Amino acid sequence: MPKVLLVEDNEMNRDMLSRRLARRGFNVLIAVDGEQGVRLAKSEMPDLILMDMSLPVIDGWEAARQIKAETSTQPIPLIALTAHAMAGDRDKALQAGCDDFDTKPIELSRLLDKIDRLLNQKMLTAQSRHT
Amino acid sequence: MKGESVADLRHELTTPVNHILGFSDLLIEESEERNLEAFIPVFRQIRSGGRQLLESIQTNLAEETDSVKMSDLEVLRESLHGTVAELLETSTSLLESLEDGDPQSLADLRAICEALSCLKAFSVAER
After folding, report:
1. Kind of pairing, strands A100-104 and A27-31?
2. Taking CA B58 as the corner, what is the angle to CA B60 and CA A103, rounded to the nearest 5 degrees?
3. What pLDDT digit, counting tens, does each position of A20-62 carry?
4. To probe the interface with A, which of B13, B25, B46 has the most A CB atoms within 10 Å?
5. What is the ipTM of this complex?
6. What is the C-alpha separation between B15 and B18, in angstroms, rounded?
């Protein structure tokens, strides 16, 4: 069961997405701000991180940078979730080290395709390291 | 509202629309799983109305403009008003008819009503 860390401050968005992912067999961990997200990424080592970018304490951009700067958490695939309203977010997310980007409202099938692709990529990278 | 940036206003309005879309998707998925087919068309109607609201917001609040013009705001309010009122009526009646239903589904439906009430407050302001 892949472990996904969802970092989202909006309670309703968190509830919706975590339930929909859990129904599809993901073990969903929750963080409600950027600082907690960074902390849980280090302690729980999830298979993948879904990070809202507008977060309290430290925002998603900074949290993504910290996760990608740390050797232990750097290989964890990270998908940035942003409000469609923010133009230029895609480039900004990739510059912060995010592996992919998605906009709200979340189209679950589109997000699941991205999650699958990144989890497969991570598995292949891990396998190639062992051979 | 005056002086608010387009990006802020879009965010303020798309957040409740995202809730309508997400919770109606959840209600559809759960009804399909539990063979509660009678409710699926209503939840689909709510989701489809939510998409209509999203399109109106995206069309009337173009990303490239910096500040919100009062005339654009009026057009947006007008375009949201009918759909919001219709969806709120549908969701509220459904909520009343499902009084003793599954607590989770009721909570999801309440979240949709709450989101629609936020949008209604915007759509009727300063009209």
Report:
1. unpaired
2. 160
3. 999 999 999 999 999 999 999 999 999 999 999 989 999 999 9
4. B25
5. 0.83
6. 5
